[in-house]
Amino acid sequence: MNKTELLYEGKAKKIWLTEDENLLISEFKDDLTAGNGAMKSSEEGKGALNNKISTELFKLLNQKGIPTHFVEMLDDNHMLHKRAEVIKIEVIVRNIATGSLSRNLGIEDGKKLPFVLVEFDYKNDELGDPKLNDQHCLILELVNDTAELDYIRYMARKINKILKEFYAKRDLTLVDFKLEFGRDHNDNIILIDELSPDNFRLWDSNSGEKMDKDRFRQGLGGLKVAYEEVLNRILGNKE
Fold first, then answer.
1. Which residues contact 238 (CB under 8 A, 6 or more apart)?
2. Predicted pLDDT at 237
């Protein structure tokens, strides 16, 4: 399968058309951004690590019955996947309070939440990705009805359970993460985008060391080393 025309370029990936109208290729970039693009940098090899980590996690979720867009990894930086119409809702899943949740609500950083929190953000950089409630989603016509929102929440919690247990076996704590969903050519809602430390907060279960993009956000350094360690733990402890 070959790239034919650039469809879209985002912060972390380029999306290419292929000879098959129902298949696209994602090219994972080495670019780093944070704060809706306010912070920018690059880390050689970061894109390949994200592609490899995402590939392993998409394979896992497919095996567990989660419908995703993943087809196959083509090479270090390219992934073949189904074409999908993006649902412009960023689904935030939280197990532990940190980041904006702690800042905005005054919850102690690192406090385990009493239940899995699922939040919706509007996928709109110009507006700064504001928080959404169900009524906002319907007013903006991001979904057809509340049943679709219930399904997205259900899938987010199911994915969280699978990944939380998967990471725990690798001495990694899944703190929170972002998911995106889309509609395939049959109008089925499927998981899309990527599953990488760019979108996940992962802490070493023993030391508490941050193994994700917070190393860039907070100027800690060692981002590539942390991503490599995440990949090594995934590959070294396959189920």
1. 56
2. 58
Task: Supply φ then ψ for residue 165, to 5 degrees.
Answer: -70, -40
| Residues in the chain with pLDDT values less than 70 | 35-37, 237-239
E-only strand ranges, the chain:
5-9, 13-17, 23-28, 31-34, 39-42, 70-75, 78-82, 85-86, 89-96, 112-122, 131-132, 172-183, 189-192, 200-204
The whole-number pLDDT of residue 80 equals: 98
Contact partners, residue 147, CB within 8 Å, separation at least 6? none
Q: pLDDT tens digits for 171-202?
A: 999 999 999 999 999 999 999 999 999 999 99
Report how far residue 52's alpha carbon sits from residue 182's, in angstroms, rounded to the nearest whole number.
21
The domain made up of 90-236 has a fold known as: D-amino Acid Aminotransferase; Chain A, domain 1 (3.30.470)
Task: Give the chain's largest Cα–Cα span.
Answer: 51
Q: Which residue reads 């990471």 in tokens? A: 167
**226: nearest Cα among 206, 210, 207:** 210
Q: What are phi and psi of 78, to 5 degrees?
A: -125, 135
Pick the CATH number of 5-82 from 3.50.50.60, 3.30.200.20, 3.40.50.1370, 3.30.2310.20: 3.30.200.20
The Cα–Cα gap between 175 and 198 comes to: 13
